[in-house]
Amino acid sequence: MSNYARTIAHNPDRKRKKEVRDFLFSFFADMQLNKIVGLAGPHIEDYITYCKSKGYTEFEIYEKDGITALHQLSRLSHEGVHLKLKDVSTANPDECGTLYDLDYCGTIKYLKDHVAKFKDRFIMTFCVRKFSTQDTVKTFFNARGETIIEQQENKKPMKYTEYLTDGGIYIHLTYRDTMPMCCFAKIA
Description:
Elements: H1 3-9, H2 15-26, E1 35-38, H3 44-53, E2 58-62, H4 66-75, E3 81-84, E4 98-103, H5 112-117, E5 122-127, H6 133-144, E6 148-154, E7 160-165, E8 168-176, E9 180-186
């Protein structure tokens, strides 16, 4: 289990993360999505319960760390969950009715291929330690081969930036969990 996953497993109060997740999931509420392809992390039960409360019924969860996967399996009691001991980059990136919820434990610097692979209906979360927010935004859109046309700063219901690119509309925000994090959501 990675140090980050170990820290998360021992730190169940993740209020800020829950607020961010609620905000980002709200952008997908009217899209008639029923499946999640994602990275659940060590609190898989809480994650599946949350996603079910938002109307999702099918789950394809990826975990490439064997110890974390065993931790997940030992706590998993929900039906309709398919846990795969593989890198999420092996997932089909174009499934209809699917939200890709990709909460990575690393910085974007090492995940550019993931950023390029998933085209629509996703939330990607990255750690921004040792890699500034500005560098993360630049790397994200460069990896996608997209140019920012317009950006708008917003402060409600939380601070975030909406980016219009030549490839779509994105929401970007930063928050602090056990470490500084940022999210990108492709909403259109």
